[in-house]
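Worked example 2:
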Amino acid sequence: MKHIAPFIVMIAILIAISIVIVVLTNYDLKKKILNKENIDDKMFIILNNLTGFGSEMLKWGIILLFGGIGLIVLEFLPYNENSPLPYGVMTVFVSVGFLTYYLLMKNQKK
């Protein structure tokens, strides 16, 4: 288990770097499109496709937040090593995160 931790950290760092690169390139592309004088329908479609990335980030942020809260709660709950309690607690908290995201998106569309 100790040998896999650096591998997971490297993957997380690479994912974070790639997300930053995607966000920066999307911002640069939006800026270039908006600075053009002649904007046609195709450019509006491209702009709409680029702006959908924020809700994905919100979704994963909420899910990770509730997953972290679940881990904090598990730290204070006494349980046996062979108990399925940690899996249930994490499942409940991640599910609450998904439901929170769903309700936020449902209210945003109204």
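Residues 46 and 52 are 11 Å apart (CA to CA). The chain is about 80% helix and 0% strand.
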